[in-house]
Amino acid sequence: MTVRHSLLALLAQQPMYGAQLRGEFEVRTGNTWPLNVGQVYTTLARLERDGLVEAAGTPDAEGRIAYRLTAQGAVEVRRWWAEPVDRDASPRDELAIKLALAVTVDDVDVRRVVQTQRTATLRHLQDLTRLKRGVDGQRARNELAWLLVLENLIYAAEAEVRWLDHVETALARAGTQTRRGGTGHLDDALTDTASTGAASTTGSNDAVPTSASTSGSTSRADRMRVTP
């Protein structure tokens, strides 16, 4: 997520001050990625330094300064809309790192790590699906924006469950190879599993998984709401 370009995109609509930008960003993304005012103003200062935004007039009665795009900033926004997101600069995935390390440490029960994560991910998926049902059918622009964010999170959770199934199958295959006198290397097992299509697929994102209990759980999704 790039706060920098998100603020530029909002300013392309009209001049705004920091708190307005934060509010618009959070409404349009369903409060999924909250911003603090300090982060917004720090980003605005950098954008101003880079010649992409400038102050729009004098401070108001409360001392707030509205910002607007410069001509260079408008060009940057158009470039951002036109170009694909750079996936070569993807952030580190904590779960992938955790499991990569787990399979190299002797005293870690990797299968338990996988099962615990699957339960948590399924619970998260249930929460997201429940929220999606509350948004479906509404066609307000901000509700559509929130729906798109929700569906992105749902697809990501479904993919994570499929990947965890794949990892568990690979672990079982590696264990079988070891018992039969093979090398039991996990990377070989992962390759074999992928080539035979052992990873499972989930159904439509409208179907609520039932593998994990949601009683007593308070997930990040429970805090996701669109401000009317």
Q: How many DSSP-defined strands?
A: 2
Element order, helices and strands?
A: HHHEEHHHHH
The number of distinct helices, counting runs of at least 4 residues, comes to 8
Across the major sheet, the strand order is 1-2
Q: Give the overall shape, derived from the CA principal axes.
A: elongated
Biggest sheet features: 2 strands, antiparallel
Q: Would you tell me the structural class of the helices and strands?
A: mainly alpha
Q: In words, what does this structure look like?
A:
With 228 residues, this protein is mostly helical. It folds into 2 domains: 3-89, Arc Repressor Mutant, subunit A, CATH 1.10.10; 94-204, no CATH class. 57% of the residues lie in helices and 3% in strands. A two-stranded antiparallel ribbon has the order 1-2. Helix 2 packs across helix 3, helix 6 packs antiparallel against helix 7 (141-179) and helix 7 (141-179) crosses helix 8 (186-195).
SSE inventory with pairings:
Blueprint: H1 3-11, H2 18-28, H3 37-49, E1 53-55, E2 67-69, H4 71-82, H5 94-102, H6 110-135, H7 141-179, H8 186-195
Antiparallel strand pairs: 1-2
Helix pairs in contact: 2-3, 6-7, 7-8
Key terms for this structure?
228 residues, Arc Repressor Mutant, subunit A, two-stranded antiparallel ribbon, 2 strands, elongated, disordered C terminus
Summary, kept brief:
Helices cover 57% and strands 3% of the residues. With 228 residues, it is mainly alpha-helical. Helix 2 (18-28) crosses helix 3 (37-49).
